[in-house]
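TL;DR need structure tokens for one chain.
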Amino acid sequence: MTFLAIDTSGDHGVIVLGDVDGTVVASTVFEGRRTLSKEIMGAVDHLLKANGLTIKTVSGLAVGIGPGSFTGLRVGLTTMKTFAQVTGLPIVGVNTLAAYAHHSTDTADAVVVATPSRRGEVYAAIYAPHVDPAPFASTYEALAGRIGQLSGQPVLLGPVATLDQIPVDVARIDVPLTPPSGLAALAARRLAAGDIDNPISLVPLYVVPPAISTPRDSSILPPKTP
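>> reply
TL;DR here they are.
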């Protein structure tokens, strides 16, 4: 059976139809930085129809939970959570940076995924033995320092425009957006294991508070209580 997966963590929406074995049946990408909420339903409908499917005939749902764009993640999650509640289909969240790392076939000692956070920083995760793979936010310089402490030959993976700003001398692999292959593989793994999320409680993976929650003028904040 074929499942539907979506990731809207970056400037482009990535929509994937995946098989139960984790392979990509079909996929599409659309520019969604400013028009995501307007285009996402049409893009989903077009991909489903092109493959003889409807939202009611897929076997499950998956959605990238970030880290990434605050608004983009909310649009993607709201769309897929609504589908899950209306159809009763199982839904799973997929760590976006893990999808990048899974896409890599590199035999490096460590894979460091870095994607832009639009704050002059990056979202990053380090996939290496004895290293916590939890995503985090970092400046370019601080991430370079962490990479320099890794043993062996690490490789940087992510959009090249982001990787080029990290001042460290390591190999780089340009992956411009969330890879459909990684998204499908990780989604299939969770769906097959029955590791299903509750569509009501499924939330984005934020590693820093959204910028909208931190006003530039701190004087408008209420006084701190002792």
